[in-house]
Amino acid sequence: MIKKITKLCLAGTLALGTVGTAFAADEASTSPFAAENFSSTLTMTSSYMFRGISFSNDQPALQGSFDWGYGNVFAGVWGSSLSDADSSGYELETDWYAGYADSVAGIDWFVMPIYYSFSDNNTSAEANMWEIWLDASYAINDTFTLHSMYAFTPEMSYKNGDGHYIRGDVTANLPQGFSLTAGIGYQDVEGVTGVNTDWDYTHWDLTLAKSLAGFDLSLMYSDTSADKATDSLNANYLGSTDNSDDTVVFTVSRSF
Q: What are φ and ψ of residue 16, in 5° steps?
């Protein structure tokens, strides 16, 4: 969830913070439902990664989004196929989000509530959850961009308590249209008395990306601090280490 929404909404932040300013200035002559205010993206990835965890059990996933932006506001829906290899009963994730974006003193930022929903649930555990995001990015120069975000989750999936997530990354624009992003994130979740204990983990990733012939291509290395079956992440959330192991992920997407 984190990686794809970050990409979508950072793009949305730039569009709403810069191009969006033009929208705001021309609102009198531009309808909120004009065709240029809508966009969609189709994505294929070798593994759907969410905060260092493979939500597709290291299997390929097909993803898509439909987005709308007008002035400083935006909204959208995003979906991904899920692998049921672990018999969890979940085969489709659908995320609904809306927010407000702006740019102040060179800092592009947005605030966004998002609802994660999971279909074909054959288990008694509740996976659906809400989050609120605070996100900011700053271009130091034409080469380097800093980005950070915080997400608060009231009642994390699977009967967990409140969750707190932070992430920071830096992107360097390279020759020939390539970019390299290095990031690190930390997830902390409160336990629920009589159900589970507190759990937390750290993850990190390195992504090489390039746009080519209208397609966005990326190759990412990802790993987490969860390397034993007895750690808090796997004991209280995953139940195994497979989905939090180090991995390399290839993704290709196209926006319309």
A: -80, -25
CB-CB neighbours of 22 under 10 Å? 12
CA angle 23, 138, 49 (to 5 degrees): 90
28, 70 in Cβ contact below 8 A?
Answer: no
Residue ranges and CATH numbers for the domains of the chain are: 2-255 (2.40.160.40)
Give the CA distances from residue 94 to residues 78, 81, 135, 147, in Å, rounded to whole numbers and listed in that order: 6, 9, 21, 25
- Extended strands (E) in the chain: 38-45, 49-50, 53-54, 61-70, 73-81, 92-104, 107-119, 129-139, 144-153, 163-173, 178-189, 199-212, 215-224, 247-255
Give residue 5's pLDDT band: very low, low, confident or very high (50, 70, 90): very low
Res 3 pLDDT > 50? no
pLDDT tens-digit series, residues 91-129: 889 999 999 999 999 999 999 999 998 886 555 457 788
